[in-house]
Design brief:
By secondary structure, the chain is α+β, with helices and mostly antiparallel strands. The protein has five helices and eleven strands, in the order βββαβββαβαββββαα. The longest helix has 17 residues. It is elongated, with a radius of gyration of 27 Å.
Length: about 260
């Protein structure tokens, strides 16, 4: 049987390799030098004359926390069949659902004994709600204890009060932004230190997510407002509609392509 060799060139050297004897997984791979993005530290940004600008307040919308019941496991099916305060449908989701009115929150209880609490408006409310959920299980006669409480995510919102030039921000801070007006009306701005995500809309409204504490939101939002948003404030009287702004950008692209 004839064995056909293939010719490969490695750095100006010609080598003949037999496919039957050669492991293709050991082929040398070219190293690509990727440009590393320098972290955008909001604590060191300086905007010149904008440092004395009054920053609009932000409001917490949701706090997500996790905690443990300190037990080896929960028989969610047995508990849900016996008590009406717990909803459990294993065909839909692996966790049981609990709700309380004050503070108005929802919790997910997993068979491992871990729980997720969501819906509170502050970190203190989240901790209080988590303790109440633990107390619910204790009232039902299940031996549990409250431990390992941790804030996982804080969502806040703010309104700058003026229209923003989203396209210009995207062009200037390209590595940190994502703006596809045809897919989503908002600009996604990611900070590296601390690691937060801002959803900035044409109307000036912002959604902040990814924070572990309120201080991270306060510092990053104030720096973003003073050093970036104020600089890209659009003229007074310009449209605040995302669809109208998208059409204006589309018309500019069509004119530039002519």
């Amino acid at each position: 049987m004839a064995i056909h060799a293939k010719m490969y060139i490695f750095r100006d050297k010609v080598e003949y390799i037999y496919p039957e004897r050669y492991n293709h997984n050991s082929m040398p791979k070219r190293r690509r030098n990727k440009k590393k993005t320098e972290p955008l530290d909001f604590s060191t940004l300086k905007g010149g004359d904008t440092q004395d600008v009054e920053v609009p307040p932000f409001h917490l919308q949701n706090v997500v926390s996790t905690f443990s019941l300190g037990c080896n496991g929960l028989n969610l099916k047995k508990i849900a069949l016996k008590y009406r305060c717990i909803e459990f449908n294993p065909a839909m989701f692996a966790a049981a659902t609990l709700r309380i009115k004050n503070p108005r929150t929802t919790a997910l209880a997993f068979a491992s004994g871990n729980m997720v609490c969501t819906g509170s408006k502050s970190t203190m409310e989240s901790r209080l709600a988590a303790r109440k959920y633990c107390r619910v299980f204790q009232t039902l006669g299940i031996p549990v204890m409250f431990q390992n409480f941790k804030i996982q995510n804080i969502v806040a919102s703010a309104n700058t009060g003026f229209p923003i030039k989203l396209k210009e921000i995207s062009d200037h801070y390209g590595p940190y932004t994502t703006y596809e007006s045809d897919l989503f009306p908002g600009l996604i701005f990611r900070s590296v230190s601390p690691k937060l995500v801002f959803l900035i809309f044409r109307s000036g409204k912002c959604v902040i997510t990814g924070a572990k504490n309120v201080d991270q939101i306060k510092m990053t939002y104030e720096s973003l407002y003073k050093n970036i948003l104020v600089k890209y404030k659009d003229v007074e009287g310009s449209t605040t509609s995302s669809s109208t702004y998208r059409n204006e950008l589309r018309n500019k692209r069509e004119i530039s392509d002519l």
